[in-house]
Amino acid sequence: MITWIRIGIVFVVLFAVTLIMLPFQLIGLAFDLKIRRYLPRYWHRTACFLLGIRIHIHGKIDRRRPLMLASNHVSWKDILVLGAIADVVFIAKMEVAEWPIFGTLAKLQKSIFIVREQKRRTGEQVNEIAERMSAGEIVVLFPEGTTSDGNRLLEVKSSLFGAAAAAVPHTKEGVVHVQPVAIAYTRVHGMMMGRYHRPIAAWPGDIELGPHLLGILKEGAIDVDVAFGETIDFHAGDNRKHLSQAVTSQLRRMLIRHLRGRDYENI
């Protein structure tokens, strides 16, 4: 009974916060004001707090721009976690725009939706990515292309770094800074999660969202480690496969370290 009361409170409070912030975000989007960049960060922090997601940060976001964060992808919670840490914009597949609730939230954050199958729109989408990064926005890419079970890194698709490669000529200094970011869900109620319990936090595509969301709400206390790696400078003429390999190496190393419980700290 207490659990359901808490879940009800979470929904009511988050709904109220959303209603309060919504008019300001809509105005920011309509007039492209800076408020539309940082207001989502406060919403994400509120959501993480209400859901009981405790974030532990290792390292720092590179201060240089243009910056692209290349992160492993475990769950829809990755959006909340990264969005709570910094003012970021996400690259998402077009299908996400049609998702209930999450699609609306993605649009309100002015996510960049890409259609991978339609090459005729590639130039238009790349230009938007380049313009957003040139304007100082931090763009997040999930190069695995889908979510995992949280226990391992899936194959990093070099083709998805085409956005970074094509954006280079549009940047002022002819470089895009790519920083690997490893997200590891490590503890539940303060106890090490382990391989068996990690699916509580992970959201592979074949699991229905409703039951999964309800499971997260019932747990109410999940720790996540977010590790920022060494930035890789990508210049015109550089090989995106080499970029993919460098990102993969860092992501796998950081992910294994934190899943095994090393370097655990609360920041």
Description:
With 267 residues, the protein is of the alpha/beta class. The chain has one domain (52-259). Helices cover 43% and strands 19% of the residues. The chain contains nine helices and nine strands. The protein has helices at residues 2-30, 35-51, 77-85, 102-108, 122-134, 162-167, 194-197, 209-219, 240-259; strands spanning 53-58, 67-71, 88-93, 112-114, 138-141, 175-188, 191-192, 222-228, 232-235. Strands 1, 2, 3, 4, 5, 6, 7, 8 and 9 form a nine-stranded mixed beta sheet that branches. The longest helix is centred in the first third of the chain and has 29 residues, at 2-30. Mean pLDDT is 88; it is low at 263-267.
Q: What does the secondary structure layout of this molecule look like, with pairings?
A:
Layout: H1 2-30, H2 35-51, E1 53-58, E2 67-71, H3 77-85, E3 88-93, H4 102-108, E4 112-114, H5 122-134, E5 138-141, H6 162-167, E6 175-188, E7 191-192, H7 194-197, H8 209-219, E8 222-228, E9 232-235, H9 240-259
Parallel strand pairs: 1-8, 2-5, 2-6, 3-4, 3-5
Antiparallel strand pairs: 6-7, 6-8, 6-9
